Amino acid sequence: MNGRALFPRFLVLHFVMTAFVTLTSPAAVSAQTSQDTEFSVPVRIVPDNLSVQEALRQRSAAERHDALDLEAQERSAIAAETAATASETQVWIGWLQLTVSAIGALGLIFTLLLTWASTKAATAAAKAALNANQLAQENFFLDQRPWIKLERPVIQLAEHQGTFAIQFSVEAINVGKTPAKETELHLQISFGKIMTPGVEGVEAYAQSVANPGTWRNSHKIVFPNAGRPMDDAVILDEPPPEGESCRIRYCVNYRGASTSAIYHTAGEVTFPVSRLISSPKAQKNSWKYNFHGTGSVA
Q: Could you give the CA distance from residue 222 to residue 182 in angstroms, rounded to a whole number?
């Protein structure tokens, strides 16, 4: 019974405390809220226009500085990369220039060699052409010039009132293609020991009479494929010495129709003087004597 009495009391006490708490909680909450509200009120500072503009300016300057710094860094990186690329390119170009220069030097040397060879070949070709032209002209003149051929001469000894003369006659035949002008015969007679003809003496004599100033102007024209007798006589102061040999050198000089060159045909005969004196005129053409002939340009 005591327990039952205590339970209602406890229950009443519980309700009382609950109510008290209920009644007192709003106040406490209100006080707490009031206290929190009093210390939680935000403070807002409203800046003036100058401060705002200055802040904006500073922020813009900072942003511009950051942008410029970033741009400078980017430019620096690009410049470094460009410099590295340019350096590599410069090295490559340097090697290329060196290679090209070496090739150019070799090409220049090769060009000089080719130029030298070409000049040498051109000079040789010019000389060859000049020689060929000169040979062609010489061949033309040789083909077109007159050529005098001398037959075997006829020699006689004439005497008149104690005066002796050796008469010399030779047939000159033009075997060339153009007329022979100013054709003239020259003689040289000497006596001595038996002698044999020699080409050196004949040529020396032909050269000695090549000067037209020594000619006697007994000129004749010998046409192509025609002949003319050439006569001359040498007067002796005394009879020919018997027992010796007589040597007669003769030369026929002439010019071409279209040139001033002097041509000649020369020869030499040797025989004993006794044969010249004792042989009758009828046998003169059948004499057997040494004969030598030569022909050249004086």
A: 9
Structure tokens at 107: 């090409």
Give the tens place of pLDDT for each residue, 73-89. 887 788 777 777 777 77
- CB contact at 8 A, 179 and 223: yes
Distance separating alpha carbons of residues 285 and 157, to the nearest angstrom: 13
Q: What is the pLDDT of residues 231-262, one digit of tens each?
A: 888 888 777 777 788 888 899 988 887 767 88
* Residue 297, C-beta contacts closer than 8 angstroms, at least 6 positions apart: 261, 262, 263, 264
Pairing of strands 220-222, 262-272: unpaired
Six-digit token pair at 282?
């009828």
Q: Is 296 exposed, middle or buried (0-12, 13-18, 19+ CB in 10 A)?
A: exposed
Q: Which residues contact 79 (CB under 8 A, 6 or more apart)?
A: none
Say how many C-beta atoms besides its own lie within 10 A of residue 177's C-beta: 13
Alpha-helical segments (H) within the chain: 2-39, 49-144, 199-208, 273-278
Cα distance between residue 142 and residue 135, in whole Å:
10
Give the whole-angstrom CA distance, residue 103 versus residue 99: 6
How many residues make up the chain in this entry?
A: 298
Strand, coil or helix: what is 146?
A: coil
Query: 290 with 196: CB under 8 angstroms?
Result: yes
- Distances in whole angstroms, Cα of residue 278 to Cα of each of 165, 238, 240: 15, 17, 12
Model's pTM, two decimal places? 0.53
Tell me the CA distances in angstroms from 231 to 159, 186, 284, one per residue in order.
Answer: 17, 9, 15
